[in-house]
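The instructor's notes for this session suggest beginning with a concrete chain rather than abstract definitions. Hand out the sequence below and ask the class to guess, before any prediction is shown, which regions might be ordered.
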Amino acid sequence: MTNNSWPILRFEEWQDTLATLHMWTQVVGKIRLAQTPLVNHWWNVPLYVSARGLTTSAMFYHERIFEIEFDFIDHKLLIECSDGSTKTLALRPQSVAAFYAEVMLALRDLGIEVKIRTMPCEVSNPIRFEDDVNHAAYDGEYANRFWRALVKIDEVLKDFRARFIGKVSPVHFFWGSFDMAVTRFSGRRAPERPGADAMTREAYSHEVISHGFWPGNKDMQAAFYSYTTPEPAGLAQAQVRPATTFYSQEMKEFFLLYDDVCQSSSPAATLMEFLESTYDAGANLANWDRAALERRREA
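After discussion, reveal the predicted structure:
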């Protein structure tokens, strides 16, 4: 950990655990998807930061509700029902196939029958859950470290979210792309994207400025991102802060490395500067009605 308590994340140190955990969250996320009605822009599917890890929040099943939570303190998967029945599974090195089988058996033991599509989403070379014996790593210390990072980030993103009175998403964790995000809306519909699939059409049906955190891959370490879509002319050349922020022509996004935030004198203030600065650039260039959309802040 750094002396400002934002934990260090190095992709190469936990890439196998990250890949496995990504698939485990997809198993649980698809249960949430199956048990909830569609909410605009797929807001019914994400997970949420909890006091111990990541949770589905409550889901209905006939006359009961149930919740599934990843506990990254005691390294357990908790399934809790409103009638008091529970199941606890250990989070440990095991394949996605074994995890999937354990979760579905635990649900059946609780009298919950859920059918999910077992092909992972938004990953290259997907393997069906029941066949995936390739991903089987679990480093509990790093899983806990990642969750502690999410707790820090969640607090800042929620503060940023509260400054907007227009339509804005919750701060949520998307298990498909494995990132935490919050999205602001101008209120105007966006041009339909030619050739877009149903998921993309629903996600980007309106003009948005989205901010979030992504844990990285072999090409880039963990980073914060910001994008405006449709992208207004001149965004790539906009002056944004902090100085270490950079723009990717390939991704059409601004990025700020997580390490740069952690190493600053005030990580929360540095992250907020990135959020506000990139939002300002996108909203101004896209001609958003900022006076109507933003909460007036006291001087």
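Then share the key points. The radius of gyration is 20 Å. The helical segments are 11-35, 96-109, 140-162, 198-203, 258-262, 267-285, 290-293.
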